[in-house]
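INFO  loader      accepted 1 record
INFO  loader      residues=119
INFO  predictor   begin
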Amino acid sequence: QVQLVESGGGLVQAGGSLRLSCSASGRTFSLYDMGWFRQAPGKERTLVATISSAKTSTYMSDSGKGRFTISRDDAKNTVHLQMNNLKPEDTAVYYCAASWGTWSQPSYWGQGTQVTVSS
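INFO  predictor   done
INFO  writer      dumping tokens
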């Protein structure tokens, strides 16, 4: 069992930065691929970024390329999403997720953290 708790969301002006963190419980954190999803009001939840269990590969959505960076620290059981040059369209609830091989159905979800970008 893995429990995920996000933090770092908030209100920021366009062009600003936020660093989201996801803390995980459990001794098997390093075995999971980790990722971030987001869900804007009235829209479906979409995948933003992923990082593999061995840090050998990362994925970044088109919306995040050049602005967002995903990283993980297995010693601290944490994964981060650094978001720079934020835009109003980045406003959403951001969810941390842990996957055992597929992102169509992550194994575990966090409760989400709100990110609001004002224009």
